[in-house]
Amino acid sequence: MKSTPDRTRLKNLHQLSRMKSDLALAALTAARLECEKTTDQLAGLNCPPGIRFEGDDAAAMEQQRLLYRSWAERRRIALNGLLARQKAEAAERLTEAREAFGKADVIGKLCPGSVRKPRPDPG
C-alpha cells in the first residue's frame, strides 16, 4: 500500500513531536540538576554546632567562626533565592515537557500503523 502525502506528513510530524518531547525532557532534567546542585551547596554551608575553643588562640578562633557564620548566612540567603528561581524554572520546564509528551502521544494515535512505545510522564 502506497503512502499518501497526508500519511507521510503525519508520520513526519510525529517524528518531530517526539524529538521536541525529547528536547523538553532534556531541558527538564538540566533544570532539576541545577536545583540539586544548589541544594547540595546549601547543605555544604552547615558547620558543626558549638565547638569550644581553648588556649591562647581561643578568641581568634571564635572570631573566625563568627565571621564564617556571618558569611555562610549571607551565602545561604543568596542560594535560597537562586534555588527559588531554579525551582520556578524547573516547574516551567515540567509543564513544557508534559505538553510536548501529550502532543506527541496524540499525534502518534492519529498516525496509522505507527509503533507507539509507552513513554512515562516526565513529572
Keywords:
123 residues; mainly alpha; Helix Hairpins; 2 helices; 76% helix
Architecture overview:
This protein is 76% helix and 0% strand. The protein has 123 residues and is mostly helical. α1 (5-44) packs antiparallel against α2 (58-110). The longest helix is centred in the last third of the chain and has 53 residues, at 58-110. 10% of the residues are buried.
- Poorly predicted sequence stretches spanning 5 or more consecutive residues: none
Helix content: over 70%
- Distance N terminus to C terminus? 40 Å
Q: What's the level 1 CATH class?
A: Mainly Alpha
Sheet with the most strands, sense and barrel status: none
CATH architecture descriptor: Orthogonal Bundle
Radius of gyration: 26 Å
The strand count comes to 0
Order of helices and strands: HH
- Average pLDDT figure: 89
| Count, helices | 2
| Structural class by sheet pairing and helices | mainly alpha
Q: What share of residues are in beta strands?
A: under 5%
CATH topology: Helix Hairpins
CA-based shape: rod-shaped
Count of discrete structural domains: 1
What would a concise description of this structure say?
The protein is mainly α and 123 residues long. The protein contains 2 helices and no strands. The protein has helices at 5-44, 58-110.
Please outline the helices and strands:
Elements: H1 5-44, H2 58-110
